[in-house]
UniProtKB/TrEMBL annotation:
One of its GO terms (molecular function) is oxidoreductase activity. Required for flagellar hook formation. May act as a scaffolding protein. InterPro entries: FlgD. Belongs to the FlgD family. It holds the Pfam family FlgD. Keywords: Bacterial flagellum biogenesis, Oxidoreductase. GO terms for biological process: bacterial-type flagellum organization. Gene3D superfamilies: 2.30.30.910, 2.60.40.4070. This is Basal-body rod modification protein FlgD.
């Protein structure tokens, strides 16, 4: 086979595969091999093999499989990069949507919402024969109490709806204390309260969306128990 016929045959194969050898050669880096390079090497290998000891079919198929694997890994990398870009856009949308919302976070500092109310929950480790919530100021003075009586195990909601105007106007944070008797007398349990989201950032790929929550600083959106507008 002449050199001209060989080149024409190679070009015909490349055209059928949709590979433009000249265009790829000008766009790819010199230290990378593409489909055209692989087919050229394989064609040259077949042309120059020993006719008395031709290339084994298994070796030929192994080379094709290796090239397919490398191509698949490259395509998968491009797909994952596209997914990463889409996730970044999703994080931006999530962060912007959380602004102006309240999130339920573990803690005992609460502030009245736009309706002048305080809402939260306590997570009881077991059923309680009696339970109550106390709202105090910074000096420890009791401002309000809620007797919730017997409660089953799990999340139990509480609220303070009729907060006096002088407390609302003060703008001070209110401390929430929760107690329950699960068989050993009244013991303190940890409450969770709604707090305002002041700002939100997309963070990085590892940490995800980060929220700046009033009175609680920066927390991960993944740690938030519940969202509320």
């Amino acid at each position: 086979m002449s050199t001209i016929d060989s080149n024409q045959s190679l070009n015909a194969i490349l055209d059928k595969l949709g590979v433009n050898k000249q265009e790829e050669a000008t766009t790819k880096r010199r230290d990378q091999l593409g489909q055209a390079d692989f087919l050229k090497l394989m064609t040259t290998q077949l042309q120059n093999q020993d006719p008395f000891a031709p290339m084994d079919n298994a070796d030929f198929i192994a080379q094709m499989a290796q090239f397919s694997t490398v191509t698949g890994i490259t395509d998968m990398g491009e797909t994952l990069k596209g997914m990463s870009d889409q996730l970044q856009e999703f994080r931006i949308a999530t962060a912007s949507n959380l602004l102006g919302h309240s999130v339920l976070v573990p803690g005992n500092l609460a502030r009245p919402d736009e309706n002048g109310e305080i809402h939260g929950v306590v997570d009881l480790p077991s059923s309680a024969s009696t339970s109550n919530i106390r709202f105090t100021n910074e000096q420890g003075e009791i401002l309000h109490q809620v007797d919730m009586g017997a409660q089953p195990r799990g999340l139990v909601g509480f609220s303070w709806l009729d907060i006096p105007s002088e407390i609302l106007e003060s703008g001070d944070a209110i401390r929430v204390e929760a107690y329950a008797d699960t068989g050993n007398g009244l013991e303190a349990v940890s409450p969770s309260v709604f707090a305002d989201v002041l700002a939100a950032t997309t963070g990085n790929g590892r940490d995800g969306v980060q929220l700046d929550v009033r009175d609680y600083g920066t927390i991960s959106a993944a740690e938030v128990i519940k969202f509320r507008k």
